[in-house]
Amino acid sequence: MTEPLIGIDDVTPPPWAAGARSVAESGVRSMLRATPRTAAQLIRWAWRTSPRLTLLTGVVQLAAGAVTAFGLLATANVFTSLLEQGPTPERVLATLPALGLVALAYSARGLLDAAVATVQAALVPLVEQRAQDDLHAAVLALDLVAFDDADFTELVDRVAQQSIARIRMGVRITGDLLASLVSMAAAVGTAGVLHPLLAPVVLLAAAPQAWASLLSARESYASFVRMISRWRQLDVTGDVITSRANAAELRAFTTEDVLLGEHRRIAGQLTAEAVRLAHRQTRIQLLGRTLSGVGAALAYALLGTLVYTGAIPLALAGAAALAMRMASQSVSATVNESNQLVDSGYYVELYRACLADAATRRRAPADAVLTGGPHVVTLSDVTFRYPGAEAPAVDGVSVTVRRGEVVALVGENGSGKSTLAKLMVGLYAPERGSVQWDGVEVSRAADALSRVAVVLQEPVHWPMSAENNVRIGRLDRADPTGSARDDAARHSGADVVVGSLPAGWPTVLSTQFQTGRDLSGGQWQRMAVARGLYRDAPFVVADEPTAALDARAEHAVFDTLHGRTGTGTERITVLVTHRLANVRFADQILVLEHGRLVEHGRHEDLMARRGTYHELFTLQAHAYADTVPT
Ligand SMILES: Nc1ncnc2c1ncn2[C@@H]1O[C@H](COP(=O)(O)OP(=O)(O)OP(=O)(O)O)[C@@H](O)[C@H]1O
Questions:
Q1: What whole-number distance in Å separates Cα of residue 464 and Cα of residue 383?
Q2: How confident is the model over 7-55, as pLDDT tens digits?
Q3: How confident is the model at residue 565, as a pLDDT?
Q4: C-alpha–C-alpha distance, residues 158 and 161, integer Å
């Protein structure tokens, strides 16, 4: 097979990758500016999480840097007094107080390092938790339609998987960077005090290494942008291979080899790119180190010249050499930490961009209140298009539904039934036209969804007890004796499912837990119907609620939905189904084709019209009539 299995070999980088692309294309100077920006952003988040711990971290990091500087000065002092006129026993004794200070500085640094570790251990997880919490809150506040935008959902996935960990790392590195900067300033400052020429020379010696690190980081960004579609393909293929849901079909169609081959093909491309990148980065780093080495040699040569010409007394030369050594060490640490921050900076920025994007995709603010109802639901010229789609999924639908009615949505696959049902309850807002409940625009009503129960074809498999799988339909419903729960279970057939569970209602329905159980497709659907009934809402949307149910269970569910038994008829029921025998008794049948409402009426009217509904119904009826013995 030569064609890529996934079908898309090169996708356009999503808009959220623009940040990485601009870094990859930007100069070293703008990358230099990115580091303080990232650090400032992380400090702001840390401050927002805990001003006290942030302040404390800053203070102990600064103190650690300052103590290191103090240690350097004390050591320089020891050297100076030792070398002043050649060491003698008296002079050695005279250095003892300075040596004491060196020891003090070392132990203070040890204590401060412990303090840094303790304060960071408290602060970093808090910042991480807050970042995760804010992300979850933003995702839960999203308008449903946001999940239909593939680029945005990939952004959310990436941020959830990568950015949170990078924020954690970034906060820690920002603290370390602060301490390294103080040490560097102290060392460079000391060298400068000993002779003004030494400070710039020390910095110049380190500059090539810093430059090489930034170039190397820029190469990483460029590689990331180049391979972004490969990474997406690798993730998708990996998920197909490892997912439990796919396991049976994947084997039944004997696709193991082709999938493995596809995964290897993509992974091979990524590995080749990783090797190319590593070689390029090694060359850049080597150049940087060589130039830095030459710079360091020049710096020491300058020191030698200064001593030789008497510009620096010999007694101070040892201190100067020490300061230069420490300056180059702390410059290396600063460069290394800045580098890591540049690396994290991309994901930190992605997180910020994701929250900003999510804020624009929130559900519209509720500015209308419903008083009871809905009694009358009115759709006027409703049109809706999924993000990025050319054709509307629902196109100019107008209809009125009254309380007590059962409305069936009928049509071929992809004709817009599920989308229309979601528009009716305000899960989607129309692009054109309006959906009103008793004259109120439903997508702007504060409490519309609390009046809705949905039963979907592929319901959520809530990883919780069977009891809560039903009660989550309305957790605040007062049902101390469990009679409402039992009613819902009886009318959906979930009572039989629960009866077969080892611990009954408390059994956890998830094999992710040791004592948990999984259910069959039809059993899950019965639980979903029970949940919908338990919600006891005045507006019920049942989207293929019985697709996986056996005949007896299906019959019972439709009896309930049609209000012929049990749980009350004072509601609106919207039913999406392909089993047309179940829509015969509906008060209104809406037939959709390519999103347009092409037929509308009761069963008898539509049969008399001999249009699409008549054709679909007759096809199904014949399939049964030919086989039922008379
Ligand atoms: N998330 C989405 N993004 C883009 N297009 C979508 C999305 N979901 C559905 N569509 C498209 O919108 C149209 C209507 O889909 P919808 O799910 O409403 O159809 P349906 O009548 O319920 O289909 P089925 O009988 O197969 O369940 C289809 O053309 C479908 O391809």
A1: 38
A2: 556 556 667 666 666 666 666 666 677 788 889 999 999 999 999 999 9
A3: 47
A4: 5
> Which amino acid belongs to residue 255?
T
94 Cβ contact list (under 8 Å, min separation 6): 81
Atom of ligand 1 nearest to the CA of 578: 25
Tokens representing 365? 């603010």
Q: pLDDT tens across 548-578, in order?
A: 666 666 767 777 766 654 444 578 989 898 8
Select from 360, 388, 409 the last residue of a domain: 360
Residue 249 sits in the same domain as residue 101: yes
Whether residues 388 and 417 share a domain: the answer is: yes
Same domain, 601 and 471: yes
Q: Whose CA is nearest to atom 6 of ligand 1?
A: 386
Q: Please say whether the beta carbons of 189 and 294 come within 8 A.
A: no
pLDDT-based confidence at 204, cuts 50/70/90? confident
Query: Do both 324 and 413 map to the same domain?
Result: no
Q: How far apart are CA 235 and CA 422, in angstroms?
A: 30
Atom of ligand 1 nearest to the CA of 576: 22
Nearest to 302 by CA among 200, 207, 183, 210: 200
Alpha carbons 4 and 264: distance in angstroms, whole number = 12
Say yes or no: ipTM exceeds 0.85.
yes
More confident residue, 148 or 33: 148
**What CATH number does residue 336 fall under?**
1.20.1560.10
Among residues 293, 296, 288, 294, the alpha carbon closest in space to that of 209 is found at 288
Q: 369 phi and psi, to 5 degrees?
A: -120, 135
Q: Confirm or reject: Cβ of 416 under 6 Å from ligand 1.
A: yes
Looking at residue 28, what is its pLDDT?
65
Instruction: Answer yes or no: is the C-beta of 417 below 6 A from any ligand 1 atom.
Output: yes
CATH code assigned at 470: 3.40.50.300
What is the phi-psi region of residue 601: left when phi exceeds 0, alpha when psi lies from -120 to 50, beta otherwise?
A: left
- Average pLDDT of the chain is 85
C-beta separation of 173 from 118 below 8 A: no
469 lies in which domain range? Answer: 376-625
CA of 442 to the centre of ligand 1 (A): 22
Are residues 568 and 420 part of one domain?
yes
- Phi/psi of residue 28, each to 5°? -60, -30
For residue 147, the ligand 1 atom closest to its alpha carbon is 1
Same domain, 307 and 400: no
Do 381 and 356 have their domain in common? no
Q: Is the pLDDT of residue 516 over 70?
A: yes
Q: What's the whole-model pTM score?
A: 0.79
The verdict on residue 257 lying in a domain is: yes
Q: Among 148, 383, 419, which residue has the most ligand 1 atoms within 8 Å of its CB, making it the best to mutate?
A: 419
465 - beta bridge partners?
A: 508
- Domain final position from 305, 326, 360: 360
Distance from the alpha carbon of residue 384 to the mean position of ligand 1, in angstroms? 11
pLDDT for 568: 47
